[in-house]
Each structure stands twice: as C-alpha cells, then as structure tokens.
Amino acid sequence: MIGNDWDELLKIVWESEGFKKFYKIVEEEYQNKTIFPPKDHVFEALKLTSYKNTRVVIVGQDPYHGEGEAHGLSFSVQKGVKVPPSLQNIYKELYDDLGIPPKSDGDLTNWAKSGVLLLNAVLTERLTDYIIRLLNEKDEPVVFILWGNFAKEKASLITNPKHLILTSPHPSPFAARYGFFGSKPFSKTNNFLREKGLKEINWSL
Known about the structure:
Helices cover 37% and strands 10% of the residues. It has nine helices and four strands, in the order ααααβααβαβαβα. The chain has helices at residues 6-9, 11-14, 17-32, 44-48, 85-98, 109-113, 125-136, 149-152, 185-195, and strands at residues 56-60, 116-120, 143-147, 164-168. Strands 2-1-3-4 form a four-stranded parallel beta sheet. Strand 3, helix 8 (149-152) and strand 4 form a beta-alpha-beta unit. The longest helix has 16 residues, at 17-32. The chain is globular, with a radius of gyration of 16 Å. The chain starts with 5 loop residues before the first helix and ends in a 10-residue tail after the last helix.
C-alpha cells in the first residue's frame, strides 16, 4: 500500500479484520461523498517519509477541509492553494526561530522527503497510535513535535528516553499566541539532532 518499509511494519494492521472493514467503509465514502484528502493522498505522509528515514514527527489533528487543500501531510496544502492561517503561523515561528523567510506556497513535501513525518492524528486513531509506538521503538533518536491538546495526548505513547518530545499550543490563530509563538521547535529539533550526531533538518526547503 505504501511502497517502502512501512508496508512490512504495518502488515499486521493492513491484514487485520478491523482495518479491512474500516477501509471498506472509507472506500464507499470516497465513492459517494466529497472526502479530503483525495484517496490517492491518504497515506502520503508514510509514502514520502519511510520509517528508516523518520527523524522528526510533527503531529497535527485533522486534514484541511477546503477544496484542494489537504493532500495527506499535516499542515501542508498543495501548490496554488492559499496558505492557511495555521501554516502562516508556523512560517512566522520558523522565521522568528531560524530567520528562514516564509515560502510563497504551503506545500511541505520537501520537509517530508527530508525526514519529517507530517502525521495527522485522525489518520485513524489506532493506526496513528500504532505508528507512534513503532517510532518509539527506534534505537535512533527521534524528535516528536506535538502541537495542540489532541496531539499532546500522544506523548503517553512515547516512553523511550532516547527521543525528544516538544509540545506547545496549536499554531491556529486561536491558540498560537498562548505559547506556540516563541516555542522555537525548529532550532530545538536541530540542536537535539546535532547533539546526537544526526543530520539536521533543512527547514528552508
């Protein structure tokens, strides 16, 4: 389904009766309703960021629901789509943190390709939790960035002391001023990776 090491790691999920029943319902919904993201982008985050290459996980809540926005990567929108307010705030914090100017578009595909797993918590609760548990088992340190209360709940799944958990309010216009701005997640991530002898993320991509 994915085309990389996630296929084998998630085989137990793909082959479970519960997932098969759930996915059948999802396919029926796609046939009869307008669903976001498009069907071919449902597992885009996993396709672009393999288990082996995952160095950072950013957990969002749910996909954007505007026409043409969601494409399977949390907080990201396709080129040509107006940059949503939450992502504008992420770009603002990125500039304040590392001096990287905002992109003209909201496509975060290059982050995904560089090792940032952009995961939506509602990929289905069980699947998201299972993915986080698998990443928790990695020997190589991973940075988990949890934005917002829903994402923060996932911290209980991250028990491996090798990893770093960064939490803050959600970057939405309603919450960003209460602690997201000034949280410096990008520099903290790269400082941690550098200290562990790992390649830093090029957030300017």
